[in-house]
Structure formats: C-alpha cells, structure tokens
User: Fold these one by one.
Assistant:
Number 1:
Amino acid sequence: MKTVVSSKGQIVLPVQLRERDRIRPGQRFDVERLEAGRYLLTKRPEADNEGLIDWLLDCPAKGWFVAIDSESTDAL
C-alpha cells in the first residue's frame, strides 16, 4: 500500500489497514527510525477504559449519563 506525507508532515494510514486493525482517531503510536528511509510504527497499548468518560459525556442521547452525588461510605 502507498501513502503520501502531507505538507504538515502527516501520514495517512490506508483505510484497509485502519479497518483491519481497528485504528480509531486519537489513538497514539510510537515511531522509531530503524535506518535512513526505514521506520517502525507501533500502536501504543490502551487502558481498557481509556476514553470511556469522554464517550459517555459525548453520548448523543442527552441526559443519558448523569453524574450522581456520592455519599461517604464512612457511615456504613
């Protein structure tokens, strides 16, 4: 597969790779220079719940996620 470096220095991963490896916007990668002209791109591991709060707060059903006041467990 081929891709192009943009004027901002960005490289687009082809859609076939993004779909196959379930790559989503915002995921982080490490880039390592192996030698002149050869690079290694590695997806960083994510925590199981990384982005969960943002996802819940962006939920299209307004009011679906409501923060609740918690009570102290000291009284239990």
Number 2:
Amino acid sequence: MAEPSIEDIDYLVGPATPHFAYQIKARVRGLVRDLPEGHPVRRYGEEKLELLERLAHSSSKAEEGPLERRDRLGWEQLPSHGAASATESH
C-alpha cells in the first residue's frame, strides 16, 4: 500500500457520524500506525483521532452554525447533546 496521505484521512473522517466514530477511529489509527513519530500525516491523523473520540460522545460534528448552549436547561443530564468541537472527551 502507498503511504497514507492527509486526503486519505479526510476521506475517512469527512462523513463521520457519532454512530460510526469508533469504527472510523480504528481505521484511521491503522492507517497512521506505521508512520514515524512526527510525520505530518501521522500528526494530522492523531488530531482527527481526538476529533473522532469527541464525536463519539456528541450528536453532531457541527463545525459550522450555532452550538448548543451549555447553560441550556438539562445540559447536565445530556452533555452529549452538542457538537464534537464542544464536547469533552471521556
């Protein structure tokens, strides 16, 4: 297999949903696993692994548009009801 590229990672992560975040995370991990530490594609992949972890505990990637307010009634009971960019990893 050819060396993975940033485009390969984007191809996997781009359509990710909370439902499939862990499956995609496993594929990205496998894609970058053999790249040397510090390799730009590996670093990019590791950033996307963090996004996928947050996404698994979210309801949307929601990179654009308004985010759910944390002071919203019930947020404490449903902390996953927000964007991956605003949800803390567990």
Number 3:
Amino acid sequence: MNPPVDNLIIGAGPAGLTTAYCLAKAGAGVRVLEADPRYVGGISRTAHYKGFLFDIGGHRFFSKSKEVVDLWDEILPDDFIDRPRLSRIYYGGKFYAYPLRAFEALANLGLIESTLCMASFGWAKLTPIRDPKTFHQWVRNQFGERLFGIFFKTYTEKVWGMSCDEIAADWAAQRIKGLDLMSAVIDGLKRSLGVRPAGGAVAKTLIESFRYPRKGPGMMWEACAEKIKRFGGEVAMDTRVTGATWDDSTALWTVSTVRGDGSGATMTARNLVSSMPMRELAHAISPAPSSLPQADGLKYRDFLTVVLIGQSATTLPDNWVYIHDPAVTVGRVQNFRSWSPEMIPDATSSCLGLEYFCFEGDGLWSSSDADLIARASREIAVVGLMRAQDVTDACVVRQAKAYPVYDEAYRDNVAAVRDELAALYPTLHLVGRNGMHKYNNQDHAMMTGMLTALNIQAGRRKFDVWDVNEDAEYGEAGFSGAKEALASERPVPGRVT
C-alpha cells in the first residue's frame, strides 16, 4: 500500500477537478480517481466521433459569481468565444422563440388562446396555492394553469419520467428562479420591440449570450486536469471506487479501486472528497451508515444523445430546441455548430444531438444504437429540422445519472444521509451535482469545490457548501469574504473537524 495521500478525490467532473485544482495550486497533495477510461469533465465532457465534437447536454459558460468566472479565465485563458444564445420551443407544429417574444407567441397561439392564457394567469394570481409543494403547483402560481399545460407539462414529464405532481417545487424554484409570466411578458415585449435591457439583474433564463470554449466544455476540464498534474497532483483514469473504510484511530481513509481490466488497488488518504452519486457512496462506505434506506430512496434520471450527421438543407441557427410536443419522444435537440463552429470538422455538415431522457436499464436505454438512430431520424423529420434522407452518419452517447431526481421524498432522504455522513466521517466532503444530490449547473458545482478546498486548508468545516445558492454565490460576504476570513487563520494540516 502506498503512503497516505493528503487528499483523495472521487470523480473528475467540474466539482472534483475544481477541488483538486485549488488544493494542488496551494501545494497540497492530490489524487483524483475517475471511472471513465477516456474523458474528464463528467457530464461536462466533450465527446469525439470522426472529428465531430459533442457537448453532453449543452453547457453555457455564464455565472453571476466573479470567482468562478475568474477561475475559468485562469484555467483556459485564450480559448473562450462569445456566442449568441438562440433557442426555441417546438409545440403543436410551430416554433416559439425562447425566451418568448410576445407578438410571435400571440400570433402562434392565436388571440383566443392567448386571452385564455392571460385569464388563467390572472386567476392564479387571485387564487394562489399557498406553500406550493409540487412542480405543478409552483408553475401554476407563476404562469397560470393553461401555460403550464402548454409550455411546461409535456417537456418536464419527458425529462423526469414522472408526473409534475410528483416533482418537488424545489426544482422549479431553482431552475426558473426570478421568472414569472409578467416578467416574461415584459421581457418578451421589449425583445419584440428591439429594446435591450439597460442593466440590473437578469434571470439566467433570459440571458442573450454566453461564453463557450471553442472546442466544447471538455476543453476546460482537460486543461484543468493537465494543470493539476503540473502542480504535482495525479489524475487516475479508468479507476472506479469500490469501497472506502474509515479508521477513527488513525483518522485515515482506506479506499479500494478497480480498473477496467479487473486489476485492483488500495490507497489511503487523510481527506476524502466525493462527487460520486450519494446513493453509491453510502453503499461503498464502511462502517455502513444507518441511513442506507434513505440513500436507496434517492433516484436519478439518465439520458442519451443520438448524434445525427449529414448535409441538411434546413438552416438552423439555434443552439438548441426544446421539444414540448407529445407527438415525438425526443426532448431536446442540440445544434453543435451553433455552440461553436470548431466542433464541426468541415464548413457544410450539420451535426444535431437529439436528447432522450430515460432510466438506466429501461427500454429506451437498452435499445440498440441502430434502433435509436432510426427513431431519431424519423423524429427529426417530424419536427422539421432535418430530413431523414439527409442523415449520412450517426452515433449514440449514453449518460447515466445525469439528473438527481427531486421527488417528494428527496429532501428528507438527502438530509438523513448528509447529516449522518457529516457526523460519522469528519474528513469526508461531498461536492457537486451527484455528490450532493443537487440539480445544479457547473458554476455551482465549482463553487462547492472551491469552498471544500478552503475547508481542507483550514482544517475544519469553516464554510457550509450546502449554503451555495443557485447563482454559485456563497453567503452575504461572498466567496471573497470567505477567502479573507480564511487568510486570517493559520491552516491546520490533517484532520478536519
């Protein structure tokens, strides 16, 4: 067995790599364990196929956190491009700009339907559901029942594979923060009239442009991994964690791993940082926590992308199109050229990623690549974004545990597991989307990694990573305040308490 490493980090996604980068830069020993044999970045990786590059899910580089933006620039200083945000909704055979343009939406819906939508919104404001518990209730309060049915219900149920009455209101409040029908209508009127915002806070849902690495988001995390190595850290690929044992007498973790060829290894560490799914971590840890039943109650939604390549006659300027129409099963279509022209190896090919939401092991997930490609080719023609005969090549990319599910029980389950792990294992740190079972963006995941690195440097849990909000901001003082507070203290090596 090798000598103990200071910090062992499970997962080379945005949270894990950010933690490792911050620690390695400060001179701490770091080893990152990544199960994927090829890619770093987790769901933020960039996949490759015959010279074509694919973003798994679509990752805008936009954050209200200056510290996150500064770190992006530090890791990847010369490779960002500015991209216009262009997206639409497909519903009922028509396309709607998203964010909505008032006059276009009015024309597409028709005067009667638009009037009914506004009346439904008015009724929701007059008779709000107090303390909404479900996604349905929350959206109904913000937009009215009729618009919920048109623009939220079908797409949301495609994504989650469950009724909107089973999804917790937390998810809507987090993902549609700062937006209701009135603000959307006012913004849509301004856009229709060509008026641009004069400043002030803008809901993330309404931003018009974003930064993007010219060869996809994986470019950021590949650069991050390389810099960790230059700082003296290690990134071990094709290394899956199978067990983690805590010894209270030595304050050390013993972690067992296995590689794709079946070979195993055991290593020890003072601090263990986990971005692996909380449910899997609870089963890997020994002594086993008593909250295993709650961990088993945590659910995940998976998805797969069918990439269609061809010479399409259809001009598509969008970054992505949300498919709200129940006539097809595809949930969203990515247009990779609009993310960055450098993701396409020639000047003429179209490359579209059709996203299908599923559960690992279900009929869709288990379908053959040939069947999925045939389905995607049919459905892209129905939507009208590409003719089936224009498809000349294709591939399938599967992504397990893409989204932690926010069902009615998730909050209590997370709290039970989180609180017990914190009490039993003083040098265990949970970070990132799956590590914390929080549906967040990569800037949020990065902030949890930054704060975890500060906690490890401080030798105690000085900052509560669970207080990072949806804008990747931490507390009233912000991340800068946290750094200043830490700078006034002498770092304590070893055990975190």
Number 4:
Amino acid sequence: MSFEEYSTKYGSVRMRRENGILEMQFHTLGGPLRWSKQAHEDLERAFLDVGRDRENEVVILTGTGDEYSGPTVQPSGEGGHHSPRSPGTAEEWDKMWFWEGRHLLMNLLNIEVPVIAAINGPCVRHAEIPLLSDIVLAAESTTIQDSAHYHGGLVPGDGVHVLFPLVMGPTRGRYFLLTGQILNAQEAKDVGLVNEILPAEKLLPRAWELARQLRLRPPLLRRYTRVMLTQDLKTRMHDLLGYGLAVEGLAAVQRVD
C-alpha cells in the first residue's frame, strides 16, 4: 500500500512525510488524542501500514495541542472495583483488547526504522507507546502517568507491565504502576524514560533535526540498528504481553455488589 493510500485513512492520525521522514500526529477531532475504541483500532492498523512501507526512513510520533494523550481515568473509589470498560463477553475482550492490544505494540516495534517520540504535554493514557521509541523528547509541560490500569480499575497488563519495570527498574516500576504516580518531565528524565526536555516550541523542530541526522546514515544501517535495538523488547513483549492481557481481561469481568 502506498503512502497516498494509507496517510489519510485513519481518523486519529495525521501523517506528513518529507524526504523519507514520516510524522504521525495523534489527535481526536483536531484536538488532543482521547483514547477510544476507534483510536485503539486506528493506531494498531496505522503502525502496520507504516512498518510495511519501505519509503519511511525515520518515524516521528507526536500529539496535538498541549496534551499528548488522555483523558485521565479517575479511580473508582474504595474497595474492589471493576473498570467501567469491562468487557461484556470473552469475544469482545478478545477482539478489542487481547488480539488488537497485542498487535498494536508489536506493529509499533516491527517498524524497522528509527522512531522518535515528541511528547508535547501530559501523557496519561498508553504512555508505553511513545516510550517504546528509540529517542524520547518531552516538552517541559509533559507528565507521565498510567492512569487507566491499577489506578483506574484494570490490571496493568497491556505492555506497561513490561516497559516500566524494565526502564525504571523493578521497584520504581512497580510503585509507578500501583500508585498512579505522576512524573513530571524532569522526573521522567531522571528515571530514564525521557532523553531530552525542551520548550514546547522547540520540541518538534528538535525531533526533525534528529530525524534528519539519523537519515544521513545508509538505509540498511538504520534499519538493522532499529531491528537489533528492539529485539529484546520484542522478545519480552512476545513472552509477556498476551499473558498480561489475559489476566487483565479475567479481572475486568469481576463484578462487585
């Protein structure tokens, strides 16, 4: 499929490409991305198309406006609670979360060119997506939180259980997932989630500067370096992502009187 065919195909993703550098800007109706079934489906399929197009030489992921992704999921309250997004049936969980959730992250990791994230503000839903990039830039206003899982009523099993303990260290990663901790940009940099912090107006220009720098290297050098550097992550996701999504679904069907 050509760039012209898939670049306008997804309502949650704007794409532009210049000299082999592809920018994917996530949004909802032109504003900051609001996670939904549609956004989940769009990103899973968009990453697949991008990874299949060998004309893409470097990829930039970013958000829209002053937020990267949201909204924050509020805690259910005291006691044992189920998520308001609990599946009605096993079939519904399988399609939306188990099947699509596995393919979303693996399609991202299967993009065989360098990926740069430009996190333009608070990232409180699916922060694992930009943080799986090879280079992670953050605006000064950026915050990182996993608001949708344990904090919001779900087992943190859709990749966050792999990424955060790996990058932050097991003790800090578990604390982050269990408490709904909010990390500001400097704290995220201090624990290794972010490489650079920039003023908002300099964020995307810096991402494009780095992309142009990476593109100077020969195509197979770029491609195979990305393949090598993501192999460990892909192995971990292959081994643990399906299990995490399965137990997340099992706990999500619990009902409390």
